[in-house]
Amino acid sequence: MRERELITKITALLHISNEDAFIFPYNNILFSLTVDTLVAKTDVPKGMTPFQIGWKTVVMNLSDLAAMGSTPKYFLLSLTLPREYPVLDITKGAKSACTRYHCKYCGGDLNEGELSASGFALGTSKTVMLRSGANPHDKVGITGDIGRVYSGLRNLETATQPMKEKIFTPRPRIAEGLMLKANSCIDISDGLSSELHHIATASNVQIDIYSDKIPIHEDVTKKAHSLGENPITWALKSGEEYELLFTSPYINPKIGTEIGEVKKGKGVFLDGEPMPLLGWEHYT
Amino acid sequence: MRERELITKITALLHISNEDAFIFPYNNILFSLTVDTLVAKTDVPKGMTPFQIGWKTVVMNLSDLAAMGSTPKYFLLSLTLPREYPVLDITKGAKSACTRYHCKYCGGDLNEGELSASGFALGTSKTVMLRSGANPHDKVGITGDIGRVYSGLRNLETATQPMKEKIFTPRPRIAEGLMLKANSCIDISDGLSSELHHIATASNVQIDIYSDKIPIHEDVTKKAHSLGENPITWALKSGEEYELLFTSPYINPKIGTEIGEVKKGKGVFLDGEPMPLLGWEHYT
Predict the structure, then answer these.
(1) pLDDT on residue B212
(2) B:83-112 residues touching chain A, CB 8 A cutoff
């Protein structure tokens, strides 16, 4: 069974919706909870330091909170590590990311085994932004640029500095998430194509994307062309970008780039043609 | 470096205390957060089903909340699993335990790798019970009985039904934790000896334990004697018991058994002799 099918079955079993974080109200406050695990085999590129592993684990979780428009408050880290692994360096990296994003790193757990790092974050929200909130007539926006992660990982030896930065020290879009006030939002962890399909399905809408509007770094375009490949395809499947993809009647250019629009209907279209479902998936 | 040294360094780096859960106030409510990871190599005895793995992961976390006197509210589960592992059975086990203890299982994460399950639980508290709150003149109490886990794991083939129950479907002492109103409390995950030392050190007190008062199941006593070993030693080092160890001026016999007392001084004593530090530790 593939990951998407499994997640569909699990969410049905639990009667929950598949969102970046779980939101619950308590005494008139909205809290958001999320968990995300970094696994050596799939999430740790060659050359990533223990400090960067700690940093990235925090970012993976805070990015989920950013997609819900939440302010991060508390973070916990459960580490499973082989013997003699430099655990304090991971902890320092996690602490550094927490400090940078004003979140308290308040504890965790330590176990022996194959490297993995499970982060848990709690945030507070003033509004609720879901994957399922996209409305026809919304525009589609995206923060930053995409493609640098896939491009860099295609061959780390020829990766440029901007590619390495996004792979080894990613940034969660906390400030943007708080400013957005979007109808729907998701963070790009599996890839733009995959996340667009998530929003279209969850919101029961059609999404039209225009390839010439997708913000792609010039280094990515150059590298794709040098290999005779299409930078748009790279941008669509590049995962762990931690940019926010959102829909709103108006896209503030200070927050993101408008790349398309939401319509009545179903499916995701790129320049008028059905967009293939690309991007990272476990168990494929 | 051994686990205790590592945890000391990590808690110093983060300026946090080493408690079962992290407690924070928000709008006059006390919230408690905890994380605990089940790892295949160390936490999954031979014969444990995927359903039981899910159940146990929930119990490990709710037991931490119980030790803080908290009411469990929300649970998240991050699973890392090999291909073709019956993930839905783990999820069903976790859901069953959450339902049993009135906690909402509200989401999680799925990854590919060596089996591990990271649980994260959030609870609310009306009081604060810490490891560091033991006072001279407190009595020492313990819920239930201890030793069945170690005794069963010594040889699963000769384990009796009461031993198997505690190993495969442990129970968190939520109700007891709420009734306790103790000065200090900890749950027994590493072993009675280890947890007694934690309380004595954190509270800067001496603890005297009387071996004839320790509640040990008759099956454990029988098995230890049949192997020519001391059941008290088994009880002191038996981990993953999920009983509560607490100190209070009065031990209500409906909640637990009185096994000793707190005094001014340092260290842990068993029948007047220094108690060895036994119990589970990673990286030893």
Answers:
(1) 97
(2) 83, 87-88, 91-92, 95, 104-112
